[in-house]
Amino acid sequence: MAIIQFSVAPLGTGQTSLSSYVADIHRVLAEEGIEAQLTPMSTIIEGPLETLLGVIAKVHELPFASGADRVLTVIQIDDRRDKPAAAAAKVASVREKLGRA
C-alpha cells in the first residue's frame, strides 16, 4: 500500500485563496472512496498506488474545469513493500520514540 502526500495549486485564477479548490478535491476523493487527511499544506491519501495515481490525475484536472490557466501538482510517494504501512502507524512510531504515545 502506498501513502501519497500531494498538493494541487491552480495558477492564473486572479485570487490567492485556494480553499474552494481544496474542497472540490476532497469532494472527489470522498466520491472515489478515498480516505484523506487534510493538512494545512497538503493532503495525504493511502491505498494501491495505481488507484491513487489515477485519482490524483483526476483531481489535477479540477482547477482547469474551474477556470485556472495553469495547475501545479506536487506529489510525494511512500511505497513500502516489505511490510504494511499506514500514515497513522508512521506518526505513532515517532510519538512512541518521543515518549508521547
UniProtKB/TrEMBL annotation:
Protein name: Thiamine-binding protein domain-containing protein
Protein species of origin: Desulfarculus baarsii (strain ATCC 33931 / DSM 2075 / LMG 7858 / VKM B-1802 / 2st14)
Domain Thiamine-binding protein: 5-95
A Pfam match: Thiamine_BP
Domain of life assignment: Bacteria
Family from the record: Belongs to the UPF0045 family.
SUPFAM superfamilies: MTH1187/YkoF-like
InterPro entries in the record: MTH1187/YkoF-like, Thiamine_BP, UPF0045_domain
Cellular component GO terms, alphabetical: cytosol
